[in-house]
Amino acid sequence: MSKDYQKPMRILVIEDDREAAGYLLKGLREAGHVADHATDGNDGLAQALAETYDVLVVDRMLPGRDGISVIAALREGGNATPVLILSALGAVDDRVTGLRAGGDDYLPKPYSFTELLARIEALARRHFPEEAETAYQVGDLQLDRLARRVQRRDTEIMLQPREFRLLEYLMKNAGQVVTRTMLLENVWDYHFDPQTNVIDVHISRLRSKIDKGFGEPLLHTVRGAGYMIRARSVNTGDPPERADAGS
Fold it and tell me: Which fold does the domain 135-229 belong to in CATH?
């Protein structure tokens, strides 16, 4: 995912100060988001419960029902929509109270709109993480994570679980050098070097299964750096050196 949260969001602003709300709503809409507005706590709570929002921006001091009460009622009812609290009350105790009531972030007034937007995007990223890809393809090699199936051209390739995980990680990082340390941590869950040739053995077996008999090699050894899987059609500069089977 990019550093900026690009997905348009639906945001509810619960703010009784119409001038402050107008400024905030205008900025959110100019950023490409849909922004609704409630002017008091009771209406805000009802709207948050009746509609689906990506993020709520809640002023702490509201008529009818204060912001802390709004958030507490949402959480008690099982509503987990991320909440950014806006408040002129910026002391540490005030922030702690807001967060303990169920707020996900707390921004004291006056605030920078750029910072507020970045915080909203961060909340959305954490609450709605990017869905993991379910399939990868490099050249004529395909891997289906859900079906646990690998095939090259029309030939299905049978892999052991660790070989599948190794290939999945390489294909996820296709066109990039994957170091031995990266493989140990992400494929074997080792956070130390076991001082064995376990990687070499599995790379050799995997290379034999996905490359042997198919013409163009896809799995390459980048000497002194690690490994890379890529098709010839991917232009990443000079081709990496491919070691003999067993390297």
Answer: Arc Repressor Mutant, subunit A (1.10.10)
> What's the pTM value of the predicted model, to 2 decimals?
0.52
CB distance 39 to 15 below 8 Å: yes
| Overall fold of domain 10-127 | Rossmann fold (3.40.50)
Q: Are strands 155-157 and 149-152 parallel, antiparallel or unpaired?
A: antiparallel
Measured distance CA(239)–CA(222) in Å, rounded: 9
C-alpha Rg value of the chain to the nearest Å: 26
Provide the token pair at 37: 């507005």
Rounded Cα gap, residues 55 and 209, in angstroms: 48
Answer yes or no: are the C-beta atoms of 174 and 219 closer than 8 Å: no
Q: Which tops the pLDDT comparison, 37 or 193?
A: 37
DSSP string, 190-210: -SS---SSHHHHHHHHHHHHH
- The DSSP code for 234 is S
